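Section 5: illustrative case.
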């Protein structure tokens, strides 16, 4: 009689079974587990990022609204996301490791911007590793919006602030002279009869610029379909924010001639919020103007 041959077990069968068991875990469960792990791993960085939103010198007050806005963007795409096939990618794991190494480098070298952006890199890697790159592509806009919750690198921020201070001061001087007010400008200081206005960093327009840029990103997602028009609105947000801040300086200068107390305190802050609202309305008018130009162009060609 022939001796029964025992089945041979390949050494690779065990890890393959392990991988199969991992693949049997629902993607939603994997996403929650990886999300919790990312939260724990990046907790010190996230804590510092949260604190920057309430730092008066960072001018990132809008940062607290970025995550809810990006989450709502992703939620509006839930029907389309549900139809995408789940295709876990090994390259996503590579990106996830890259984010971890970037975080360690940023912490070791005290590069705050590098360490904070590593959170986004790891998030993209985690989504690709669990769901695939098609999911990352579909969520590209909400994921890109998250970069607005991180303050730009210090050297860029300082150069932008100084440039905006000088531009705002110059425009404020021009507007006041056009209206017949006597004004003398020295750098970022405007001297009017009986009062001296100093355009500080907080009044340079960097705060309104970041806030307006964020609002334009949200507005583009929900109300603007054409990519070229989205870019035009974002580009126009820069001069609109600068002009709005110059008008704030103009209003402050005029008010100072009637009551110097209006230059500081609640009234001064109110001028700032009014300028942001005016700049937001300006971006809306730019969109309406672009639509009108586009319709006229199509009618002319048609």
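Designed sequence:
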């Amino acid at each position: 009689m022939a001796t029964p041959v025992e089945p041979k077990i390949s050494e690779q069968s065990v890890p393959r079974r392990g991988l199969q068991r991992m693949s049997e875990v629902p993607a939603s469960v994997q996403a929650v587990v990886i999300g919790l792990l990312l939260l724990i791993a990046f907790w010190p960085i996230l804590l510092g990022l949260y604190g920057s939103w309430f730092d008066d010198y960072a001018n990132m007050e809008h940062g607290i609204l970025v995550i809810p806005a990006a989450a709502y963007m992703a939620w509006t795409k839930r029907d389309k996301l549900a139809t995408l096939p789940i295709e876990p990618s090994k390259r996503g794991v590579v990106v996830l490791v890259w984010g971890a190494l970037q975080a360690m480098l940023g912490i070791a070298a005290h590069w705050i911007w590098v360490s904070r952006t590593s959170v986004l890199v790891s998030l993209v890697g985690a989504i690709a590793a669990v769901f695939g790159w098609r999911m990352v592509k579909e969520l590209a806009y909400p994921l890109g919006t998250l970069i607005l919750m991180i303050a730009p690198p210090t050297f860029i921020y300082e150069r932008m602030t100084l440039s905006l201070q000088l531009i705002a001061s110059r425009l404020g001087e021009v507007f006041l002279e056009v209206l017949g007010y006597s004004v003398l400008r020295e750098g970022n200081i405007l001297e009017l009869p009986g009062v001296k206005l100093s355009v500080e960093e907080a009044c340079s327009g960097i705060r309104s610029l970041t806030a307006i840029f964020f609002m334009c990103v949200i507005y583009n997602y929900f109300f603007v379909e054409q990519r070229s028009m989205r870019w035009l609105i974002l580009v126009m947000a820069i001069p609109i924010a600068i002009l709005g801040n110059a008008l704030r300086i103009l209003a402050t200068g005029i008010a100072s001639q009637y009551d110097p107390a209006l230059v500081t305190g609640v009234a001064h802050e109110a001028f700032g919020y009014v300028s942001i609202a005016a700049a937001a309305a300006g971006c809306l008018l730019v969109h309406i103007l672009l639509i009108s130009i586009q319709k006229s162009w199509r009618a002319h060609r048609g």
